[in-house]
């Protein structure tokens, strides 16, 4: 009995193997056939285009001979390739072969009969989808309706179908990719970065591309922002204001504090402009062509925080900027490489709010928003959601939601990755989590992160924005954070990537290690 069972199971295994091989043969034959068909169609389209060109010469007879000959050559080539494929195909399904032969015959005879008039083909009752595509392709150079992929021959549904049905072919399921936005009035600015060609997805444009700024009219007005309480900054500021006004004939804006300092230095600086209150600051972006910062990273953060909407290009100067004239000359002339630094839009929603839109004044951060335990000695307890999905509960000192620009600041100190500033995304970095497995995350740019202080939390939490403006988050309060539509354009010294690498080498001494000495054991000694 056992022997019979073993024999039977062996037989079954053999049958299964044969079936699998047949299925694999069919799949590869189908793939190969589809590929050759695609090439055939491309060639055919090219021929139609060439024919159109030649017909301009009114040499119809020559054209017809040439066309028929090249079509025959193509068809023969295709047949040569298709025959072995069809053999395998037959193993799988006899009907596929019949459809393919019919299809080939139809194409072949159409070509042989010199059926090369695009309009005629287009209007023909028996037009095939293939011919339609061909016409569309040759007329427009691209697909008109949606995104198509390679065509494949369709299994015949039933033998009783009409000839027209039998000869029908089916394309690989066509599809369209579109951006998902938060409704029509969503605050996310999107643009197409993906292009489609015959169903193959290619990224045409990526936001991490190097961007170049070319002035279309000469800049007229410059705003200079300076780090306070620094003698070297004050000296540099005086020189720069003078040069910009006297040599470049530009209008110069400074902060009220700096104007007082300048006028105290010399009454000649009375031409320097400033503002009286915050409402004037909100209109600055409409007057200022360029912002110059004299200071470090903190001054750039300060500059960005002054613009609650669009930000003019920022040229950051460190304190040792001896060559500011050459540098500003080339910036004012353009073109310059810029880095578009993404910002995060942060809104606090109180427990008492009726809905998510009832928020306090939003904050825009260039580095990060931090939610921490403040002066409380208890662990934070923060519930985190990404769109509507629960992410995790942060129990530790807190959480940093950082931009990629801010990835080299606090987030880095808390163990987050350093990310090129042109990469769009939100870094989700815990601060001293009380768990061994809480690794930092990087979330995509389009999400909204929601951090909530649960009602069972032992203490409130504190949110701070680029290290400033602390806000208390009580139980039930939440912080919403998403990518802001207004990036901060900063001028590069060389280009985005070069500047980023230089800043992590020079500023952070990234991977600085003494070079290993030459003397010592070598591979050949082993
Ligand atoms: N443990 C930490 O590393 C820590 C703690 C608190 C705040 N910070 C950072 O300080 C920032 C505020 O800066 P500030 O100048 O107003 O305060 P600050 O004067 O205390 O300077 C903080 C330091 O962070 C550096 N820094 C700021 N942004 C940076 C960036 N994007 N890449 C690399 N280094 C950066 C500055 O150069 C400065 O040396 C916050 O946004 C936060 O990222 C860091
Ligand atoms: N125009 C300004 N008005 C008020 N505060 C400012 C201004 N510019 C900078 N700050 C603040 O001064 C502090 C120090 O500025 P900044 O980081 O530029 O100097 P730094 O610490 O010497 O530079 P770094 O450490 O990045 O080399 C920051 O907290 C910043 O917010």
UniProtKB/TrEMBL annotation:
List where the protein spans the membrane.
none
Under the heading InterPro entries, the entry gives: ATP-NAD_kinase_N, ATP-NAD_kinase_PpnK-typ_C, NAD/diacylglycerol_kinase_sf, NADK
Q: Name one GO molecular function term.
A: ATP binding
Coiled coil regions in record: 19-46
Q: SUPFAM superfamilies annotated for this entry?
A: NAD kinase/diacylglycerol kinase-like
Q: List the Pfam families hit by this protein, alphabetically.
A: NAD_kinase, NAD_kinase_C
Q: Which reaction does it catalyse?
A: NAD(+) + ATP = ADP + NADP(+) + H(+)
The Gene Ontology biological process annotation of the record reads: NAD+ metabolic process; NADP+ biosynthetic process
Q: Which protein family is it in?
A: Belongs to the NAD kinase family.
Q: Which HAMAP family match?
A: NAD_kinase
Q: What is this protein called?
A: NAD(+) kinase
The scientific name of the source species is Gossypium mustelinum
Q: What is the lineage of its organism?
A: Eukaryota, Viridiplantae, Streptophyta, Embryophyta, Tracheophyta
């Amino acid at each position: 009995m056992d022997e019979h069972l073993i024999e039977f199971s062996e037989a079954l295994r053999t049958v299964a193997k044969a079936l699998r091989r047949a299925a694999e043969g069919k799949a590869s034959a189908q793939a190969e056939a589809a590929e050759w068909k695609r090439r055939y169609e491309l060639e055919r389209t090219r021929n139609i285009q060439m024919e159109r060109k030649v017909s301009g010469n009114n040499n119809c007879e020559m054209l017809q001979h040439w066309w028929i000959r090249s079509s025959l050559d193509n068809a023969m080539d295709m047949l040569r390739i298709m025959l072995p494929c069809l053999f395998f195909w037959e193993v799988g399904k006899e009907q596929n072969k019949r459809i393919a032969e019919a299809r080939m015959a139809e194409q072949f005879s159409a070509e042989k009969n010199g059926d090369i008039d695009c309009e005629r083909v287009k209007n023909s009752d028996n037009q095939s989808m293939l011919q339609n595509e061909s016409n569309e392709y040759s007329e427009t150079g691209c697909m008109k309706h949606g995104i198509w992929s390679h065509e494949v021959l369709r299994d015949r549904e039933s033998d009783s179908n009409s000839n027209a049905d039998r000869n029908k072919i089916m394309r690989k399921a066509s599809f369209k990719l579109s951006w998902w936005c938060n409704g029509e009035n969503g605050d996310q600015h999107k643009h197409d970065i993906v292009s489609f060609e015959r169903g193959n997805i290619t990224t045409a444009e990526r936001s991490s591309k190097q961007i170049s700024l070319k002035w279309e009219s000469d800049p007229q007005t410059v705003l200079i922002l300076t780090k306070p309480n620094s003698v070297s900054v004050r000296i540099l500021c005086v020189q720069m204001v003078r040069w910009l006004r006297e040599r470049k004939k530009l209008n110069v804006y400074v902060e009220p504090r700096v104007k007082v300092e300048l006028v105290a230095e010399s009454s000649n600086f009375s031409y320097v402009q400033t503002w009286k209150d915050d409402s004037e600051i909100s209109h600055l972006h409409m007057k200022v062509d360029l912002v110059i910062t004299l200071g470090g990273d903190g001054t750039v953060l300060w500059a960005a925080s002054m613009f609650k909407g669009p930000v003019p290009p920022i040229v950051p100067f460190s304190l040792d900027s001896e060559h500011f004239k050459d540098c500003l000359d080339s910036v004012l002339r353009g073109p310059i490489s810029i880095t578009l630094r993404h910002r995060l839009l942060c809104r606090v929603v109180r427990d008492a709010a009726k809905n998510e839109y009832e928020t306090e004044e939003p904050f825009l951060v260039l580095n990060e928003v931090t939610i921490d335990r403040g002066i409380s000695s208890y662990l934070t307890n923060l519930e985190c959601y990404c769109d509507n999905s629960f992410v995790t509960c942060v129990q530790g000192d807190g959480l940093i939601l950082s931009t990629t620009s801010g990835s080299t600041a606090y987030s880095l100190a808390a163990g987050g990755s350093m990310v090129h500033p042109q990469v769009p995304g939100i870094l989700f970095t815990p601060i001293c989590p009380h768990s061994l497995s809480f690794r930092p995350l990087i979330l995509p740019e389009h999400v909204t992160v929601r951090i909530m202080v649960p009602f069972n939390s032992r203490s409130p939490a504190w949110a701070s924005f680029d290290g400033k403006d602390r806000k208390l988050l009580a139980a039930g309060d939440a912080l919403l954070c998403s990518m802001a539509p207004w990036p901060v354009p900063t001028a590069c010294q060389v280009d985005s990537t070069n500047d980023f690498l230089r800043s992590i080498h020079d500023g952070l001494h990234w991977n600085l290690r003494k070079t290993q000495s030459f003397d010592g054991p070598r591979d050949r000694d082993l």
